[in-house]
Amino acid sequence: MISFEAVHKRYPTGREALSGVSFAVERGELAFLTGPSGAGKSSILKLIALIERPSRGQVLVGGQNTAKLPMRRVPEFRRQIGVVFQDHKLLQDRPIADNVALPLIIAGVARRETDKRMRAALDQVGLLGREKSLPVELSTGEQQRVGIARAIVAKPPLLIADEPTGNLDPMLAIEIMRLFKRLNDVGVTVLIATHDVHLIEQFQARRIVLGEGRVAAMTPAAPPVAAPLLA
Amino acid sequence: MSPSAYFSRHAQTLVGSLGRLAVHPVASLLTMGVIAIALALPLCLEVLLQNATTLTANWNEAFALSVYLDKPTGTTRAEAIAREIQARGDVAAVRLVTAAQALAEFRDSSGFGAALDALADNPLPNTLIVTPSPSASSPAGMAALKTAIGAISNVAIVQLDTEWVQRLVAILDLLRGVVRLTGGLLAAGVILIIGNTIRLDIQNRRDEIEVMKLVGATDGFARRPFLWTGVWYGFGGGVAAVVLVGIAVGVLSGPADRLAGLYGSAFHLSFLDARTIGATVLGSALLGWAGSWLAATHHIRAINPR
User: Fold this and answer.
1) CB contact under 8 A, A83 and B304
2) Domain-embedded: residue B142
3) Which of A89, A145, B66, B188 is packed most tightly, with the most Cβ within 10 A?
């Protein structure tokens, strides 16, 4: 589903964020990108979502070489990826329903179908009934769940998340991670960037450890150290 | 996307953009007010032009050619000539003033009755007053008619003074040019005003546009609400401009009527016709669309998710 081949990313400021990064995430896999701040986690996610393009090397997403994708096809490409942000990136002046339905509205889905899928997505994240609330009326954890609902509402085959639990307390963080796990269980490929090593130890998933813009280690999926939390 | 979904989304955006304007009523009304004032100037000139055209059209009806027949031409031949001229398509009416009628009128109006009695015979010829049809009331049409009538036998003189008509038509043509030029310049001004307002709106909503693009919105999708906002600005400005001109006509109508009365005219200052009003409002909305399209296309393309 995702393949990085000797990818370099140098920003206009001259900072080299990635230096020859290579890894792959298979279809239907749950994987964590981890490492300290500045290791290149966010840069990798930006390259996947085509927010940035690689300076060198190849990024393949769903078999598509992103470097060769013309600008006019970028929106269509992004609709195939659900993205969850640490800061949620919700439209503050729009109710939750509009925020979640946005990808469907953009895709031109009929109104009735949009409403149905928006409610289903909110139900999945436990927020059904809060459609009319504004983001500011929700807690940080609830806002994050709205962000997840928006990311999954169009049923994308790939979900990427950048520090989705960064601002959450431990219990809420585990709740959010369980949500990602449930999505992965139904076939969605999930790649999560996080620096919270203790949190990801509780999930059976492969870890791609980054350090100074390189892949420092790749660990195979291991049994969770706190299996009861996944019950 | 199906056509019904497409139009449904546009309708939603149309209403939504109006709602956004209502959130900031003062700012929205100020923008529409500036547009209205910019459009009111050429509209006022158009009112002036339409009224002047109406006035001169009425004058055209009074334009006539005086056709003096040869002195010996009798009344029977004069009536035959009158019928011949009347049969022309470019003639609205022909009136025969016999030599006797002309002398009687001259006697009544001149006060030379006693002197005229001393004349051995009537020195005045039979005369035809020819009123051209409206289509032939232009200087060129009247000149052609004059030539044609002058070629009829027994016609001595065809008299027509069209110089002042030509001057008037030239003035009206100049005024039309001024209206077009002013209208064009101010239309460009309206496009710039709306474009700049939309540019500021886009800057204020940059985060929202970034989020939209992150979840797969095309530039066209992100541009849509701004286009409708521009249309609303233009529409509102156009309606307000028509209202402003209506107020101006209402204020000036009384003094104009009094001035016309002093010249013995029943002229009344008229408001814009329905077609001009419709064209103004529709054109203004289109200017709004053009201004917002220019600004939104350029500035939204430049916004990329970070």
Assistant:
1) no
2) no
3) A145
| B78 part of a folded domain | yes
Contact assignment for B214 to A89 by CB distance below 8 Å: yes
Complex prediction ipTM: 0.85
User: What pLDDT score does A227 carry?
Assistant: 41
List of residues 6+ apart from B119 with CB closer than 8 A = none
> Which ranges constitute the DSSP H helices of A125-169?
140-152
Chain B contacts of A51, Cβ < 8 Å?
A: 214, 304-306
Q: Which domain holds residue B118?
A: 64-136
Residues B191 and B255 in one domain: yes
Taking CA–CA distances from B220, the nearest residue in chain A reads A106
B72, B8: one domain: no
Which residue among A51, A76, A91 places its CB closest to the CB of B216?
A: A76
Question: How many Å lie between the alpha carbon of A101 and the closest alpha carbon of chain B?
Answer: 11
Q: In the predicted model, is pLDDT for residue A228 greater than 60?
A: no
Q: Are residues B54 and B172 both part of a single domain?
A: yes
Q: pTM of whole model > 0.80?
A: no
Which of A12-21, B236-245, B294-303 is the least confident region?
A12-21
Domain co-membership, B76 together with B185: no
Q: Which residues of A touch B3 (CB under 8 A)?
A: none
**Do residue B108 and residue B52 come from a single domain?**
no
Does residue B27 sit within a domain? yes
Environment class of B54 (CB within 10 Å of its CB; exposed 0-12, middle 13-18, buried 19+)? middle
> In this structure, are B44 and B117 located in the same domain?
no
Per DSSP, A223 falls in state -
pLDDT for B144-157, tens place per residue?
888 999 999 999 99
Q: Let me know whether B92 and B215 are in one domain.
A: no
B117 in the same domain as B76: yes
Using the beta-carbon criterion (under 8 Å), do B9 and A91 form an inter-chain contact?
no
List the structure tokens of B258: 């009094």
Average pLDDT over chain B, rounded to whole? Answer: 87
Calpha distance A216→B32 (Å, rounded) = 60
Residue B238 domain-assigned? yes
3-class state of residue A202 by DSSP? coil
What angle, rounded to 10 degrees, do the helices at B219-262 and B206-214 form?
140
Which phi-psi region, left, alpha or beta, contains residue A35 (left: φ > 0; alpha: ψ -120 to 50)?
left
The boundaries of every CATH 3.40.50.300 domain in chain A are 1-80+160-231
Is the Cβ pair B216, A111 closer than 8 Å?
no
Task: Check B214 against A78: CB less than 8 A apart.
Answer: yes
- Res. B298 pLDDT band, cuts 50 70 90: very high
CB contact under 8 A, A106 and B215: yes
| Interchain CB contacts (distance < 8 Å): A and B | 54
Please indicate whether, in this complex, the C-beta atoms of A108 and B6 are within 8 angstroms of each other.
yes
Q: How far is B17 from chain A (nearest CA, A)?
A: 13
CA distances from A6 to A18, A29, A60, A188 (A): 9, 21, 12, 26
CATH fold of A1-80+160-231: Rossmann fold (3.40.50)
Checking if the pLDDT of A226 tops 50, the result is no
